[in-house]
Amino acid sequence: MAIVRLSGPRAEAILAQVVRRARGEGVWESHRLYVGQAFSATDQLLDEVLAVLMKGPRSYTREDVGEIHCHGGLVVPGLVLDSCVSRGARLATPGEFTLRAFLSGRIDLGQAESVLALIQAGSAGAARLAAEGLQGALSKQVASLRKELLEWMAFWEAEFDFGDEVPRMTGGQVAGRLSRARDALQCLLAGALEGRASGEGLLTVLVGPPNAGKSTLWNLLLGEERALVTAHPGTTRDLLERPVHFGGHCLRLVDSAGLRPGGGPIERLGMNRCRQVVGQAEMLVVVLDSSLPWPRGLELLSEASRRVPTVVVLNKRDLPQRLGVRDLEDRLHCDAVVPTCLLRPEEATSVRAALLEAATRAGAGRAAGALSVNHRQWQALVRAREHLESLENGLQEGMPWDCLAVDLRLAVSVLGEITGENVTDEVLEQVFSTFCLGK
Amino acid sequence: MGFHMISADVVVVGGGHAGCEAALAAARVGCRVLLITPNPSQVARLPCNPSIGGPAKAHLVREVDALGGEMARAIDATQIHIRNLNTGKGPAVQALRAQADSPVYSSRLATALSAQPGLEVLADLVEGLEANARGGLSLRCRSGRVLRAGACVLATGTFLGATLYMGRLRMPGGRSGEPPANGLGRSLRALGLRVGRLKTGTCPRIHRDSIDFGSLDVLPSSCDGLAFSDLSPLQVPLRHVECHLTRTTERTRTVVLDNLDRSPLYGGRISGAGPRYCPSLEDKFVRFPDRETHLVFLEPEGLQTPEVYLQGVSTSMPLEVQVAMVRSLPGLHRANLLRPGYAVEYDFVDPTQLDRSLQVRGLPGLFLAGQINGTSGYEEAAAQGVLAGLNAAHHVGGLDPVFLDRDQAYLGVLVDDLVCRGTREPYRMHTSRAEYRLLLRQENADERLTPLGRRLGLVCAERWQTYQERSLASEGEVRRLLERRVGEAEAQSLALRLEATVAPGCVLADLVRRPETSLAVLREWEGLAPLDPRVQAKVEVRLKYEGYIARQVREVAKVRRLEGMPIPDGLCFSGLAGVSTEAAEKWGRVRPVCVGQAGRIPGVSPSDVSALLVHLRRLQAAREEICGGAA
Ligand SMILES: Cc1cc2nc3c(=O)[nH]c(=O)nc-3n(C[C@H](O)[C@H](O)[C@H](O)COP(=O)(O)OP(=O)(O)OC[C@H]3O[C@@H](n4cnc5c(N)ncnc54)[C@H](O)[C@@H]3O)c2cc1C
Ligand SMILES: Nc1nc2c(ncn2[C@@H]2O[C@H](COP(=O)(O)OP(=O)(O)O)[C@@H](O)[C@H]2O)c(=O)[nH]1
Ligand SMILES: [Mg+2]
Questions:
Q1: pTM of the complete model
Q2: What is the rounded CA–CA span in Å between residue A402 and residue B85?
Q3: Where are the domains of chain B?
Q4: Which residue among A33, A117, B275, B381 sits deepest, i.e. has the most Cβ atoms within 10 Å of its Cβ?
Q5: Is there a contact between B312 and A439 if contact means CB atoms under 8 Å apart?
């Protein structure tokens, strides 16, 4: 269970846009709990929720406050938050609700001090974390990668600003630096994945066409009948998320609606949500029905499978086969392919083993070990990789260096979000300490 | 000498690059302007390198030009060597660099000043400055004159409390042969301004005829017609000179290192911080001992003068050491030293005391521009001059001050850096200082600033007309290229011409987007006349780098929200809940005008910024909504 909370004069308006009540029209009664459904900005059903409006000043912040109680985990609350933001709300800064309560006079002077402490604890906590992190493996690796990129940036920047005085980087040197950086980042991501698997849980999404056996697998992995399994395609429409633990690892397992072209309106809503979750996934399990030819509607997986470890389950081996490992080439980037028949529960073991291996092996031999990263840091690493990929594309297209430098700078600054550093000053520092410049 | 009083709308002190542009800008928007400088025939001198432009600096020159300033036209008219640098490195970092005929450049500016209606130049030295009780400022001159002004721009360069150094010699002076401005420095302190100390240095000049050019590498000027100003024709000048290149030797190193104790820099006589990007030769050998050799460029100072500037040999060694140093360079064994290098140490005003219009906070009507603000370089000075002159005029006319944003101009980056971060070394512009570099290109300075300049009254009819014609032409061409489809038969002939694959049915714009395709070749194939090179550059950049440019535009939009959130004028930062003492102290001193700026000040943490945001929102009548998740 999670609560998304809104505060401010338009809290009611936003609440009313995000949540459609099952019963009740017109104004929301203050302090009354409603049953309803939360929708995204594009009108997709997100979750069954409970919602309440507390009119100011009878609320924590003395402003109008809305609360949406939705399913827990990170996915659903995240989507509900997104929906609120897209309707005009802004994400609260740490401690901001409490601070607002103080500023509006809701809490007294004595409490004000604890508010201050709270805010400063927020930043001190962040600082402490950063300090601890500095000795921590993650920060060390991020810092060293960032240093490499900064050095590279300094080469380019020096060349831009002091052309004839510095040695030119050759295309080969650029390619070399790029591939070193990408390897290092890959290694970091691998370690991070491992860390996520042993900590908060790796967001693992089951995807594939309808009726391939995703829900069957989900149930098998969880060891209980939880998702609705029917022979009718398009049964699973909601995202179901549950943690599973095995081998000292934790996966947050998400069962999704099947992907296929067309489908009814409600089914399409489910597919849309599935696409959003695939974008956030840290690991993918693609379930395919091997008794059918390659299905349409899976195009987005080809890109996604390159981003994160991907296990392909070729299900229904008991039926005549029409889809084999070769058909996956060029379509998916698989770390492992498991042909299986999920009707036989004992077969789940091989899938489980492949999953475990994919999560760990991605890092094996490269990652110095599991890195503890939170979702935000994970996202930063992924974005850094995207910037490096974009740089690589630009390089291949023959774009000039000042354009590529945009990506390089973004990669450095995204990594800086983890280490808490600022680009401009450091680049100049680096430029002047590396090169003898000036006329 | 009798007491007499003169009054003007705007008084500009100092006829350097900043002062000249300030005086011209203020006069152009209709003020009566007085420019005071000791030697009116020697304005806009180039005491250091006789060159203008280079990465980021050329961008500033283009911005000065787009705002109707003088520097670009002056260098175009007086250049004797020009190149476009970084051509292979992309649209953002390409930069013109030209050698000026130094004395001619200076007289060209003197002519521009005397031709400007509403502007008068007086030979004098300002010795004191006071704020009048009822607004306005009074300036006391060495001659006994007293000037009254509605606003004043101080552009005194390296002259405040300045000392010159060469070996053990140490003498007061703002530049070789020119006295410092000590009285004015004192009155600034008396007005309560914080000042700091910086230093810089220059290189020796040698006689052209004493150089053995035969043994040196030649750096020829470009053969293309190149110009900084939108109003200059793209012509190759009648007379170009060559520059030459030589390198330091082992002998040079020995001479320098053996005599280090005689350098005022290493003898501990100079305390001011020097520029890292412009180290003396002493510095180079000490800080980079592994580097075997350093480049030295030989740059003629002009057509009519025999002086050749030795770029790369900035030094303040005693004269005889300088002679030995110079003669240790290949090709310069017989060099005849005409003017030795020297260092200058001077006061600058901590620029965090200014607002973004370059006005001193708390002293309405007093504006500062140029090296007095801790910058270095002609271009940096000229650009600030335009802004300060304009804002001085606005102050007098009771108009709102004009600010430039970081995503709008290098000048915006420069001023924002100065007023919110200050500087500890002479501040020079680099392209890496601009986070939205791809938007701030040399080629689009007019698009960025000329419409603004026109609204403000800085841009003359001719420039406005030229600007509109070129915009129309480039937009028209882009549209044409986007619409013109390639037919079946054409595709083959084009493929041959471009030596690349061409799919029938594509539009010409698709081809221009390829890095290797030039628009000129394409138009030739179409049988069309070549475009004006300036228009062509705009079209090519627009199509080829579209994706990257659009990305930077999106980034700007992301930060604009914070940037646009103003901080009320008198807000007291100390005691704000959640704001650290350090941030409160910094903000109190720098007085950021918006949240974006508050966040850029060193020492401020993100949590300080969020606490400030919360407070600001509390002040707003209509508040925003926030949302957050809690498990
Ligand atoms: C020795 C030396 C070395 C330099 N080295 C470098 C370098 O390495 N790199 C670089 O980029 N730049 C260098 N420069 C800096 C460059 O010359 C300046 O940045 C640029 O000229 C500054 O322009 P400005 O308009 O601010 O001031 P200036 O060009 O210095 O002009 C100031 C003007 O104000 C006048 N003035 C001063 N005080 C008064 C007064 N009280 N009353 C009336 N008039 C007054 C002066 O006579 C002068 O005309 C150097 C300058 C010097 C002198
Ligand atoms: N023959 C066969 N049927 C299977 C196998 N695995 C699952 N099924 C059946 O396929 C149907 C769809 O399964 P389900 O898990 O709901 O698929 P989902 O739509 O991907 O979630 C159900 O009737 C399952 O019993 C298998 O290995 N062989
Ligand atoms: Mg299902």
A1: 0.76
A2: 13
A3: 4-200+345-456, 205-343, 475-552, 564-630
A4: B381
A5: yes
